[in-house]
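Board notes (copied after class):
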Amino acid sequence: MSFITDLQAIFPPERCLLDGAALAAYESDGLTAFAATPRAVVVPVTREEVVAAVRVCAVWAVPFMARGSGTSLSGGAVPVEDGLVIAMNQMNRILRLDPQERLAVVEPGVINLAVSQAAAPHGLYFAPDPSSQQICTIGGNVAFNSGGAHCLKYGMTANHVIGATIVTPTGEILECGGESVESLGPDCLGLFCGSEGLFGIALELTLRLIPKAEVFHTLLAGYDSTDKAGEAVSAIIAAGILPGAIEIMDRLAIDAAEAATHCGYPPNAATVLIVELEGPIEQVESEKQRLAAIIEQSGPLESRVARDADDRALIWKGRKSAFSAVGRLSPDFIVQDGVVPRSRLGEALRRIAVLAQDHGLRCANVFHAGDGNLHPLILFDGSVPGEHERGEALAGRILEMCIEMGGSITGEHGVGLEKRAFLTPMFGEPDVAFMREVRRAFDPAELANPGKMFPSGEAPALQSHGLHPLEKAGIISRE
């Protein structure tokens, strides 16, 4: 018997991939700078097969990683060298959709947008809307606690997942949460969301659905400087208006989006601002008058309101295509993800421009302005010696800037492989050591997606003063 023969006893040949050509498709994720070849890839179609694969890994001490569509932009879905990839795409059924309770029970391979499409006839939808929502899976959204353009008003994935069935790396089945937004006891589900696959694999997820807005009001404004757009954002929030989304794109990003989608953004603007109000007609009618006054006072070159649903969709198509569209401007690029206080957006963008110039590279900027979530797109040519290294160095300096400003090293893309070195500067050694001890409580052998999130090398021992870390966190009790 061997690890491979045990897998072959569970999966038929067409769903147990072993040869190099088949494995090559799984070597990387959306951050192609990192790659590794797994020992095997299995494609389960039932939860029992997932559990069996995890238990085989536990017996043979083989590391594993669950993978959805591979859209991670932090290296979080790069395989573990010589480990197992458990590809969840075929577990893509919506098991139950209850419009009365406003919930959906889904398998982890369900595509994000498919949930909203299924719920649409009932006037409901799933709020988290990452740019990759046409292809990214719910399991991946949960692993990285994805956000999207509308997370300012509606929150992240963790705010919309109310229950989960999980298989831990030791092969145990855990039920977290349930069918109610409010649950009793420790928030194990909150611990699982955003854990980047380190605590196990979701087998089934219960999602909260919300009613579609009665009306939308989408405004597009162009400015001759990013500072003016940033000041408009601050004024909108200060006025007590909570839009569904507030997005900013700079000139490079505008050029890319326009070339890809012909979205009609202002041709002479250095920056565009997209503000979308949504909700009951009476509320939006009141807010759009105040919004118009704020935008007029902010000194735009021009502004306009989406004429109809098609025009609104085109405005958002330009924004949501920005990451991929930048490929028209550069053969290679790095999508960074950091957060700064909203009041310091203008300063952050000026510093990014200086840093890019210092590193001899161009940088396009797309960001969720409402919560200060930056997405600098660092353009480089990997065929030119030293450019990739300069790109990575610039990405690191941007993260250091975010920490210095009191922000975060990630808003929604996770830590993965890319940002491990910045976890300790962000949180400090004691906190990182505690995080690792919590992880080991679920996965003592560290078989689930090892090498991700935590700094390379052994973490310092946690001074637990006789308490298990989950006891200190209030998650378990030995009484």
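Comment from the instructor: The two ends are 43 Å apart (CA to CA). The chain has five domains: 3-87, 94-211, 215-323, 330-419, 428-472.
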